[in-house]
Amino acid sequence: MSAEKKPPGVPDPSKGGRARAAKLSEEQRKKIAKKGAAARWGPPEATHEGNLTIGDAVIPCAVLKSGIRVVSQRGMSAALGRHTTGSGPSKQKTGAEPSSEGVAKLPNFLMADNLKPFIDIDLAASLTEPIEYVPQHGGRTAYGFKAELVPRICDVWLKAKDAGVLTDSQKQTAEKAYMLIRALAHVAIIALVDEATGYQEIRDRQALQAILDAFLRKEFAAWAKRFPDDFYKEIFRLRKWEWKGMKVNRPQCVANYTKDLVYARLAPGVLEELEKKNPKTDRGGREAKHHQWFTDDVGHPALAQHLYAMIGLMRAADSWDHLMQMVNRAYPKRGHKVQLDLLPAQKE
Fold it and tell me: How many domains does the chain have?
């Protein structure tokens, strides 16, 4: 059948729609498509829920059908002492308004202008699009973000405090962030959420090969900078070495520290598989850096999240021994017995 012709003088509404679509950027089109899909299929459902206790803070959390662990955005605000106002979903979702420059909304606990220099692009992108989900027992939808972002959020406040840019009221939030980072050392954040929701009881115990397939490539990729300078700066500070910058060769033992702190604790079996894929040559070096074997969709994001968490623990540590106590408790290597006397005794 031919399309029905419009009577003379009646505007074609589709022309206006096409004109508007032509003016949209690629990012705007993606967001509209994402909202359309959400409206059609609805937000994901939580299969497990619980309350995550970190120090004195209690943060609601959930595991979605996809296996994504989320923490409540409102709960994180409360834990940092940055309480939201109002009860509508828009307030819960963002807690912030766009700036005059059109910058995307951030949660209220990171919306202050003096924090922006310490928020990297990846973190901002993750937080400006909160995860909307349906609670386990139904009811009003909730908003949260991936649990792995908690250490990175705290690290923003710690960096801002170190830079001396916080107001007196913000310093109280930085202190709460510091306490959260220290408390996180008791158990890794993912394990905490799983424990709080009961999800650990149904985790697949035979998933090692699936983990390795997701984390590692079949062939290594081109080199790109993956380790923040702060990772090495903190090692030097805790070892009481003079820091001369990244252009100066680091002691050989730093490579061993990197292997211990990062690759041995990132995911089960990853270090062993890397040693097979990327063995030492006769000259003692390797054909590539270990991180060049990581996949873009799983390996590199997991590495980045682990590094930010590790840097947060480093900043909270008073000494190298103190750091290793926290790391062994938060990210124990497989087969290692967890040490219970995590934090040093407080002096009277």
Answer: 2
